[in-house]
Amino acid sequence: MAMVHPRDRATFEAHWIAALEDPNVTARAILADGALVGYVTRFPANGQDAVGYWIAKEYWGRGIASRALAQLLSLVTTRPLHASVARENAASIRVLERCGFVITKYERSPETDRYRACEVATLVLE
Ligand SMILES: CC(C)(COP(=O)(O)OP(=O)(O)OC[C@H]1O[C@@H](n2cnc3c(N)ncnc32)[C@H](O)[C@@H]1OP(=O)(O)O)[C@@H](O)C(=O)NCCC(=O)NCCS
Question: Of 40, 42, 88, 91, whose CB count within 10 A is highest?
Answer without folding.
Answer: 40
